[in-house]
Design goal:
The protein is α/β, with parallel strands linked by helices and about 450 residues long. The protein has 2 domains: about 50-225 and about 420-445, Rossmann fold, CATH 3.40.50.11720; about 235-420, Glycogen Phosphorylase B (Rossmann fold). It is built from 19 helices and 14 strands.
Length: about 450
């Protein structure tokens, strides 16, 4: 393994051994035994949780082989996938081949919809056999994990294959940090294998260091979710449907939040204000449940998925039962609400999506997972906290009555985002440096794995 690679080999990383050669005999035995022991549990889960069934082959590492040598970017779900797109675009601008993955089908579908040419799959299960199969097929030159995707088997497998692992836009939330500290001894080897951590903030950097990541490997590169993104274009047919009246949007909503948004909208309509509401549940599996709630209300409503030439009228609700269109819809709105925030447990979602489109935003009081974004929104005046349907209705009515002031608040938010430009560039620089370090190590006398 100490031979010096030739130029072609250096371009795609070290040659991978056939079969499960990346695992030593002992690890192979343990992997097969653990797979056999896990099989019954996986079968029960597969039967009991239908949403786990799509993409099962991808989860087992059966990923279609692309050209070798991509940078593999992984984010957990929709929010992380949206952040990952900024990094993906920056890497591709530099001429890098990129593939991407998410843990959820919804996140994967967002990636595929936003970048049709991108190789986007579900991530392998964190088991040596699934990880080994995925790495053999894809042969990445680096693995970039967005936020806090610390999968021990995947990271260990990457190290065996000479693939540097970089955490980008790294965060450790108030909720996750105590868990990681509790299992610090178990997690230690995983953290030691990280080539670099690009932390969102100084506080996140301190938290990674407190878990044992060497400080020399930690850099504050910024939050990919705070990086201003270019406006997204609305599909032409949807643009026609949303052109007739001032628009309020309740996006990324969870259980109970659709009811609050509809109650607030009812108050808006009772005041005689002209407006329509777009309701966008966070998870596609809840679309039908929200549709039933709309059926039980007195509002006229329509689905995004139903072809219609009729514009959404004042007093009407559009159920956005699609994936990947919410950001563009925010751009058409007068004011917006971002969910996952009215009750504890979810932790909040990216409250900046409306601000990227220069729109003011409301959100609930429970947003620990979006602390920096919330602070920016509040300090700039572009965001405000609401606690229930009544306070949300008051915010919407104020903006409908004074749209110029609403637009000014949105513009102030855009201005506050400017210092955060460059997070994707800094993350890409860190990944490039990790790749270069592996190449230098491999080409040094006595180098190689």
């Amino acid at each position: 393994m100490g031979t010096e690679p030739d130029d072609a080999e250096r371009a795609v990383g070290p040659k991978r051994p056939p079969g499960l050669g990346g695992l030593g005999p002992g690890r192979r035995s343990v992997a097969w035994v653990s797979a056999a022991l896990a099989a019954p549990a996986l079968a029960v889960a597969w039967a009991a949780r239908p949403k786990w069934r799509p993409g099962l082959g991808e989860r087992l590492g059966r990923i279609r082989s692309e050209a070798p040598g991509p940078i593999w970017v992984h984010g957990a779900s929709v929010g992380e996938a949206g952040a990952a797109l900024r990094l993906i675009d920056e890497l591709e601008r530099r001429g890098r081949s990129v593939r991407a993955s998410t843990t959820t089908v919804t996140g994967r579908d967002l990636l595929r919809g936003a970048r049709p040419g991108l190789a986007a799959t579900l991530a392998p299960l964190d088991h040596p056999l699934a990880v080994e199969a995925a790495l053999r097929r894809t042969r990445p030159v680096a693995l970039a994990l967005v936020e806090t995707e610390l999968w021990p088997c995947w990271i260990a497998g990457a190290q065996r294959h000479g693939v540097p692992v970089v955490v980008v836009s790294g965060r450790l939330s108030d909720r996750s940090l105590p868990r990681y500290r509790r299992f610090r001894r178990v997690l230690g080897p995983t953290l030691a294998r990280l080539a670099a951590v690009g932390a969102r903030s100084e506080e996140d950097a301190r938290r990674f260091a407190s878990l044992g990541v060497p400080t020399g490997r930690i850099t504050v590169t910024g939050d990919l979710k705070l990086e201003p993104s270019p406006p997204q274009e609305l599909a032409s047919d949807l643009g026609v449907r949303l052109a007739a009246t001032p628009l309020l949007v309740a996006g990324s909503t969870h259980e109970g939040e659709e009811a609050a948004a509809l109650d607030a909208f009812a108050q808006v309509c009772a005041e005689g204000l002209a407006a329509a509401l777009v309701l966008a549940p966070r998870h596609p599996e809840r679309f039908e449940r929200v549709a039933r709630e709309l059926d039980a209300r007195s509002f006229p409503w329509q689905r995004r998925s139903t072809a219609s030439a009729a514009p959404v009228a004042s007093g009407e609700v559009l159920l956005l039962d699609s994936v990947g269109e919410l950001a563009a819809v925010f751009g058409r709105s007068l004011a917006a609400f971002v969910g996952g925030s009215l009750a504890p447990g979810v932790g909040g979602h990216n409250v900046l999506e409306p601000i990227f489109a220069s729109r003011p935003v409301s959100f609930g009081p429970y947003t620990p997972n979006a602390r920096e974004a919330v602070a920016l929104a509040l300090q700039s005046g572009a965001g405000e906290v609401v606690s229930d349907a009544k306070t949300l209705a008051a915010a919407w009515m104020r903006d409908l009555r004074d749209p110029r002031a609403a637009a000014a608040r949105g513009a102030a938010g855009v201005e506050a985002l400017e210092p955060h430009q460059g997070a994707a560039r800094r993350a890409a620089d860190q990944i490039e440096a990790a790749i270069a370090a592996v190449g230098a190590s491999s080409s040094a006398p006595g180098g190689g794995r």
